[in-house]
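Field log, afternoon session.

UNIT: design team B
ACTIVITY: writing a sequence onto a fixed backbone
BACKBONE:
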């Protein structure tokens, strides 16, 4: 494992200005609200209009990151946007962001795509670029920005959402110092969730996608665990390796998925433990479902996800924002595990240690203020916004420091910034 400190120095989020209440949506669909709130674990869902596209959300998050953390743009040598809902087959979202934020020309600028894993692909490229020494002291900005859209009256409808998380990656990991070199990966060629060219709505084999996620998680976690054991970051003992992580964050397509994921991760440890032969498969399955473990290691990371919904590439990093917003003071010096999953599919389990400055950084980030500015809309208004054409943004002034798509002219997208 490389010992140089590399990781996330600061973060910022951007979310659409509107949201819908999921119990209200359930009633409108003739579904028991408990299915959405308890069965899926969701409370609210971000509602976007075409003016709040992937570029606008990404640029708004980067603008907030640079402003609130007073980042010197000349320090940035790489800008990567992880997204699966780009706005052009060729021109990357990242180059729009570079232009809108007037960032220097002297940097690498590109998008990374592999469903929800795209943001993690960008984060790892940035972290390994810095760890290799090639960055020569420069930082990277990695943005995860997406719009999750399945359509009205579909099974996936209550698992939609939209938003962006911007990460500043550097040799000063005030939020999270990554354990570079410990990552475990697992990928497979599957059709669990996809979006054919030209379609705005994803196609999904929902229950199969959950199985693929859990299978990929097992492979990625076991890969990480093998390296973490070899480096004595964790050990088999009175607690399992997974229990030695202070918190575990998962990709969150809907909050209940994090509970299923945690059960699966625990099962991997219980099945592989040196003393596994002393217990029955039924006993291990029962132990894996422990609510106490879920409450202690996972639940506190889900507060923002439960209010925004799926944000594809950004979901894992929204969980990180939610966790650090709630607990950065008490978690300083402790190790987190993170599981990224992207359909198709790819997954990666990695870890990092929360920095001593995390609480000060999160105080400047103030995610609660961003969330508090949102307005609740009725189901009728949500349906109206969903039916707007993608190239027909509403004429609305963006909030100060935020961006909106204003119009598309000659196939070129034009954005405005809130004054
Ligand atoms: P569904 O078939 O409508 O729901 O679709 P269900 O019947 O499976 O019920 C969901 C849960 O609610 C179940 O809990 C029910 O028991 C419970 P579980 O058994 O799973 O623990 N339930 C109730 N609970 C309380 N009171 C009630 C009640 N009724 C039922 N009255 C599904 C659910 C998630 C499949 C659907 O919403 C969907 O297709 N979503 C999109 C796909 C998805 O999110 N997949 C997740 C894994 S793949 C992934 O994460 C990648 C992704 O982010 C994309 C990318 O990588 O780019 C999606």
């Amino acid at each position: 494992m490389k010992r140089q400190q590399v990781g996330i120095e600061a973060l910022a989020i951007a979310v659409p200005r509107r949201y819908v209440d999921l119990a209200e949506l359930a009633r409108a669909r003739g579904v028991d609200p408990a299915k959405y709130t308890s069965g899926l674990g969701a409370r609210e869902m971000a509602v976007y209009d075409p003016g709040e596209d992937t570029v606008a959300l990404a640029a708004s998050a980067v603008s907030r990151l640079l402003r609130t953390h007073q980042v010197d743009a000349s320090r940035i040598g790489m800008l990567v946007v992880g997204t699966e809902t780009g706005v052009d087959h060729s021109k990357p979202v990242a180059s729009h962001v570079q232009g809108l934020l007037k960032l220097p020309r002297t940097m690498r600028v590109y998008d990374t795509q592999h469903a929800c894993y795209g943001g993690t692909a960008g984060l790892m490229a940035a972290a390994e670029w810095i760890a290799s020494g090639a960055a020569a002291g420069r930082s990277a900005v990695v943005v995860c920005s997406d719009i999750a859209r399945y359509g009205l009256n579909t099974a996936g409808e209550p698992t939609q959402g939209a938003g962006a998380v911007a990460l500043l990656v550097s040799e000063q990991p005030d939020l999270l110092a990554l354990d570079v070199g410990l990552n475990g990966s697992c990928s497979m060629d599957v059709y669990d969730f996809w979006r054919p060219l030209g379609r705005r709505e994803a196609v999904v084999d929902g229950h199969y996608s959950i199985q693929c996620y859990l299978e990929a998680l097992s492979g990625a976690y076991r890969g990480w665990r093998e390296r973490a054991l070899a480096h004595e970051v964790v050990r088999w003992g009175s607690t399992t390796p997974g229990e030695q992580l202070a918190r575990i964050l998962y990709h969150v397509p809907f909050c209940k998925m994090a509970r299923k994921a945690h059960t699966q991760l625990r099962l991997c440890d219980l099945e592989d433990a040196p003393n596994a032969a002393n217990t029955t498969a039924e006993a291990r399955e029962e132990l894996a479902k422990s609510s106490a473990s879920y409450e202690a290691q996972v639940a506190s990371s889900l507060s923002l996800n439960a209010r925004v919904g799926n944000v594809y590439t950004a979901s894992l990093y929204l969980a990180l924002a939610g966790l650090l917003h709630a607990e950065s003071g008490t978690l300083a010096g402790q190790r987190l595990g993170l599981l990224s999953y992207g359909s198709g599919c790819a997954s990666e389990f990695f870890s990092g240690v929360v920095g001593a400055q995390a609480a000060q950084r999160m105080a400047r980030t103030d995610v609660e203020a961003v969330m508090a500015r949102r307005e609740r809309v009725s189901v009728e208004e949500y349906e109206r916004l969903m039916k707007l054409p993608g190239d027909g943004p509403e004429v609305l002034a963006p909030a100060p420091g935020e961006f909106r798509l204003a119009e598309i002219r000659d196939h070129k997208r034009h954005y405005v910034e809130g004054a």
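LOG NOTE: The two ends are 46 Å apart (CA to CA).
NEXT ACTIVITY: expression trials, pending approval
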